[in-house]
Design a protein that fits this description.
Shape: elongated
Protein name: Outer membrane protein TolC
Family: Belongs to the outer membrane factor (OMF) (TC 1.B.17) family.
Low-confidence stretches: 3-26
Number of domains: 1
Radius of gyration: 38 Å
Number of strands: 6
Signal peptide: 1-25
Helix content: 55-70%
CATH superfamily: Outer membrane efflux proteins (OEP)
GO molecular function: efflux transmembrane transporter activity; porin activity
CATH architecture: Up-down Bundle
Number of helices: 9
Mean pLDDT: 87
Strand order of the largest sheet: 2-3-5-6
Coiled coil: 315-367
Structural class: alpha+beta
Strand content: 5-15%
Largest sheet: 4 strands, antiparallel
CATH topology: Outer membrane efflux proteins (OEP)
Length: 429
């Protein structure tokens, strides 16, 4: 009995721990860039909306295609007359079944189906473009968090260096080897460094909150991100980048489909000038013995003789719609070209900045070490140490920012070229 009670209590305890574990877990969620992209794609409301628009467009194709199929309708008439009439008895019933199909619509059905198909294809391209936008935003938010975390660490290093230097200055002041202004100046620099550290932490919190929201996680979710090494450089020319963008960009493909859809508009409008031909077969049943159950077949030809220039107005609207979509296509072409050039030049500039920044850090570290030794030996001034410390902090910040800026510009170029994918992590690892 005791054993059973013990096992039961253990089971309850394990259940409670499993329920409370996620709440009281102290370890942050570990995420890679691939994990982050999958979460962002799953959560993205914009992507869900684009997919919903695609489903809607697919049903528009089916709706317009249904005009090729016959329609079947049934009617029933129940009449009570008092007194009886010659045509209808006191209890008269009549039922009919009619099948009807359009043999020729003047190109209306073909135009509507063709237009709907182009819009559906365009909606599919919009899904692809929206997905690439989500991937791009995830990369940038991921890099922003890593960059902010690194800047917090560098700000903390600056505080630690100045704290250590302040202790040295205070010790020398106690011995009477330096004046009080050295202590005051160092305390001011330390206070400024602490303020910078506080700002860096706030920036990091904001970046983490934005990143978590992008992934559909709670804004205060504690997340640990795996670092990413320097991205693989794009080695093509700017002309190749632009050509790739005009070939691969899904938003450009979408507008191309919209232009083709607009061209079907004239066919749809001109159908108002053409005849329509329909065929119907009808069978009737009545409860009068004296009246046979008839059936009939009708071939109907309809032609619009005058519509008050309605068809002409529709044609003009369709023609101007073609002009509009063509101009929007050219505008998109110019926009993509400009975006690609901007991303390409930004990446080239970031590469240069990264190369320069990587060389400065080592020199700044050496300069700071020399300034410390000279000050402690009485050959240098407190201002030399403070200046060299500030230069070292700036050098490390510049290198960190240059590194992550280069990675972000690389992602932006891939997005501008339309080549960024879910599987591509832009990482050398």
């Amino acid at each position: 009995m005791n054993l059973k009670k013990t096992l039961l209590l253990c089971g309850i305890a394990l259940m409670v721990c499993s329920m409370l574990g996620p709440v009281y877990a102290s370890q942050p969620a570990q995420l890679t860039i691939a994990d982050s992209i999958r979460l962002a794609i799953t959560h993205s409301p914009a992507l869900k909306a684009a997919k919903a628009e695609t489903e809607k467009a697919s049903w528009l194709v089916k709706e317009n295609h249904s005009a090729y199929l016959p329609t079947l309708s049934a009617n029933h008439l129940q009449a009570y007359n008092n007194p009886d009439t010659i045509n209808y008895p006191s209890n008269y019933r009549s039922s009919s079944l009619e099948a009807k199909t359009i043999l020729y619509s003047g190109g209306l059905t073909e135009g509507l189906v063709g237009q709907a198909k182009k819009l559906y294809t365009g909606a599919q391209h919009n899904v692809a473009y929206t997905k690439q936008q989500v991937i791009t935003n995830t990369y940038l938010a991921y890099y922003n968090v890593l960059q902010a975390e690194k800047n917090v660490a560098l700000a903390d290093e600056a505080v630690q260096r100045l704290t250590q230097h302040l202790s040295i200055v205070q010790a020398q002041y106690s011995e009477g080897t330096v004046i009080k202004s050295d202590v005051l100046r160092t305390e001011v620099e330390l206070a400024q460094a602490k303020q910078n550290h506080s700002k860096a932490k706030n920036t990091c919190r904001l970046a983490s909150s934005q990143f978590a929201t992008l992934l559909g996680l709670p804004a205060d979710q504690n997340i640990a991100l795996a670092d990413i090494r320097e991205t693989v450089a794009y080695d093509g020319s700017i002309d190749q980048a632009i050509q790739t963008a005009l070939t691969q960009r899904s938003d450009f493909k979408q507008i191309c489909q919209e232009e083709k859809a607009a061209q079907y508009g004239t066919q749809i409008a001109k159908s108002g000038y053409l005849p329509t031909v329909s065929l119907s077969i009808k069978k009737e049943w009545q409860n009068q013995d004296s009246v046979p159950n008839p059936w009939s077949t009708q071939l109907t030809v309809g032609f619009n003789l005058f519509d008050g220039s309605r068809t002409k107005s529709k044609i003009k609207q369709a023609e101007w719609e073609i002009t509009k979509t063509h101009e929007l296509l050219e505008q998109k072409r110019e926009q993509i070209t400009l975006e690609t050039k901007e991303a390409y030049f930004n990446l080239q500039n970031a590469r240069t900045a990264l190369d320069i920044a990587s060389q400065v850090v080592a020199k700044a570290e050496e300069d700071y070490a020399i300034a410390q030794v000279r000050y402690q030996s009485g050959l240098g001034t407190n201002l030399d140490v403070i200046d060299s410390q500030g230069a070292l902090t700036s050098a490390k910040l510049n290198y960190t920012n240059a590194r992550y800026d280069y990675n972000k510009y690389s992602v932006q170029l891939a997005q501008a070229m339309g080549t960024i994918t879910e599987e591509d992590t832009h990482d050398k690892e």
